[in-house]
Automatic annotation (TrEMBL):
Subunit text: Component of the mitochondrial large ribosomal subunit.
Protein name: Large ribosomal subunit protein mL60
Gene Ontology annotations of biological process type: mitochondrial translation
One annotated Gene Ontology cellular component of this protein: mitochondrial large ribosomal subunit
Protein source organism: Ephemerocybe angulata
């Protein structure tokens, strides 16, 4: 129980989630970079002349430079204090389009 071979929280309880409470500068830069890359792909598809419903919906989304920092790094959460939580707390947040939030939040 005690000493060199004592049980650690990982060994006794399984996977230990260590999510920081705020995004680091590097993770924020990577998030902005992903948003810019998505904007570039949407623009390339638009310029190619292809027409589809998903492209029309994508063109309605705000571009990275049009978004306030609050929308880039946080998302609406009905359960969170202040109704916002860090974007990195959302499962698979790097693969989702989280650019729009309810009005007033």
């Amino acid at each position: 129980m005690f000493g060199a071979f004592r049980a650690t929280s990982v060994a006794s309880g399984g996977l230990l989630w260590k999510t920081p409470w705020k995004l680091s500068v590097t993770r924020k830069a990577n998030a902005r970079s992903r948003l810019k890359k998505v904007d570039a792909v949407i623009e390339a598809v638009r310029a190619s002349g292809v027409q589809c419903g998903s492209l029309e919906r994508a063109l309605e989304l705000p571009k990275e430079h049009e978004m306030p920092a609050k929308d880039k790094y946080t998302v609406f959460s009905a359960t969170a204090k202040g109704y916002r939580k860090g974007i990195h707390k959302v499962p698979k947040w790097t693969r989702l389009t989280l650019r729009t939030n309810p009005k007033g939040f």
